[in-house]
Amino acid sequence: MALIVHKYGGTSMGSTERIRNVAKRVAKWARAGHRMVVVPSAMSGETNRLLGLAKDLMPDAHSAQAQRELDMIASTGEQVSVGLLALALQAEGMQAVSYTGWQVGIRTDDSYTKARIQSIDDKRIQADLDAGRVVVITGFQGIDPDGSITTLGRGGSDTSAVAVAAAIRADECLIYTDVDGVYTTDPRVVPEARRLSTISFEEMLEMASLGSKVLQIRSVEFAGKYRVPLRVLSSFTPWDIDLNEEARSGTLITFEEDEKMEKAVVSGIAFNRDEAKLTVLGVPDKPGIAYQILGAVADANIDIDVIIQNVSHDGRTDFSFTVHRNDFKRVTELLETEVVPKLGASRVIGDPRICKVSIVGIGMKSHVGVAARMFRALSEEGINIQMISTSEIKTSVVIDEKYMELAVRALHRAFELDGQAA
Ligand code: ASP
Ligand code: MG
Questions:
Q1: What is the pLDDT of residues 343-395, one digit of tens each?
Q2: Strand 3-8 relative to strand 172-177: parallel, antiparallel, unpaired?
Q3: What percent of the chain has pLDDT over 90?
Q4: Where are the domains of the chain?
Q5: Nearest ligand, CA of residue 101?
Q6: Which of 47, 141, 214, 219 gets mutated to test ligand 1 (max ligand atoms within 8 A of its CB)?
């Protein structure tokens, strides 16, 4: 019998009726002989509601003191969830106990609202498991070195579940969610999208960082670092479906590359509408320029994504990069007031209406011409490519956002994902 972690999202925890169903499902696993740890999110809408209350009182809570209070407030959603779920399990006749992050030693750094887990003390969890209890632990939160409550960023319960699974060396971490697995792309954009029965950890990491919202990216990083077997599956199946069938459903994130042998070159298409493009025109072409431009942006704590520098003509070049769309105004101002005058560049132009579309697949390592096939599919649709970036297992293009859906559909077809057996 195995040591299993289940994670349930806000939708699964959305009402007492649904919590009862979660309890019945967990009880089914426990009665089959598995040792069970459960990590639920807050009830759906609850984190937004709590942060809304905070916003009423302080619209921009940016100071460290204010952010500390945001975490104090937001973390309560999960505290309610674990108590309710433990109670529901007891009502099902199970032995169950709930804990908040600090009670089981989930230690994080002190970056409020986006803290990172540093360690988990598994003693208490193990003792309860040994005593035959189901252990229910809050997602999304931990405690910093000062003892203040921290949260892990929106969607952070995924990361909590994987981190707990790593700490107790669970056999598998099952993420129950409102989609039934990882798809070749978002089925809302491409109805022909197919569920993948397996995806490699590397591909999942790319998909998560390129805009697929199935898992919080840090949870995937964690799973990779500690090699936690991770499965994404539907929380909408009836709780009493056959356990073996349930255990094989969804998408398994695997570390074995050869399991993918018969798979296509490209496994999925990711896209992201949250970006904006900036270009500094007429930059003198000399050492230190990239550093002076991007260093200023990084110093303002703004993430940079795709970067392009052109070859120079007449000793000058153009330098482009993308940032999150929310940062567009700030970065434009920063470049105009600080960077352009200092460098003696000509000016800044920008476009917040772009998007990034990416193809992802470990098959790209061993196949040539994959990028060319991508560019052909886009050209056949008359879509202009503004920027390109590649890595070993992905190629991304930046295009006008109005072509996003067209591009995703064209690529899904070009790489034969529509009809591929999962
Ligand atoms: N409740 C938190 C959120 O809404 C964490 C989570 O659900 O994963 O972001
Ligand atoms: Mg989530």
A1: 999 999 999 999 999 999 998 888 889 999 999 999 999 999 999 999 999 99
A2: parallel
A3: 86
A4: 3-256, 268-414
A5: 1
A6: 47
Count the residues in the chain. 422
Q: Spelled out in words, what is the top-level CATH class assigned to the domain 3-256?
A: alpha beta
Q: What is the mean pLDDT of residues 65-86?
A: 98
158: burial class by Cβ within 10 Å (0-12, 13-18, 19+)? Answer: buried
CA dist 420 and 265 (Å) reads: 11
The token duo for 99 is 């804990």
In this prediction, residue 265 has a pLDDT band, given cuts at 50, 70 and 90, of confident
Q: How far apart are CA 85 and CA 93, in angstroms?
A: 13
For residues 131 and 314, the model is more confident at 131
Task: Give CA–CA dist 108/150, Å, rounded.
Answer: 7
How many angstroms does the Cα of residue 286 sit away from the middle of ligand 1?
46
Mutation to probe ligand 1, out of 50, 81, 140, 150 (largest number of atoms < 8 A from CB): 140
Q: Which of 38, 70, 79, 154 to mutate to test the pocket of ligand 1 (most atoms within 8 A of CB)?
A: 154
Which residue matches tokens 């999925």? 268
pLDDT at 258 over 60: no
CA distances from 269 to 176, 202, 393, 396 (A): 23, 14, 12, 10
- From residue 154, alpha-carbon distances to 74, 91, 125, 374 in Å are 10, 31, 25, 33
Task: Give the CATH fold of the 268-414 domain.
Answer: VC0802-like (3.30.2130)
HSE-up of 176 (CA within 13 Å, CB side)? 28
> Hey, whose CA ends up nearest to atom 9 of ligand 1?
154
Residue 130 CA to residue 396 CA, distance in Å, equals 48
Regarding the beta carbon of 101 and ligand 1, being less than 6 Å apart is answered no
Same fold, 3-256 and 268-414: no
Q: 117 and 157 in contact (C-beta within 8 Å)?
A: no
> pTM higher than 0.85 for the full model?
yes
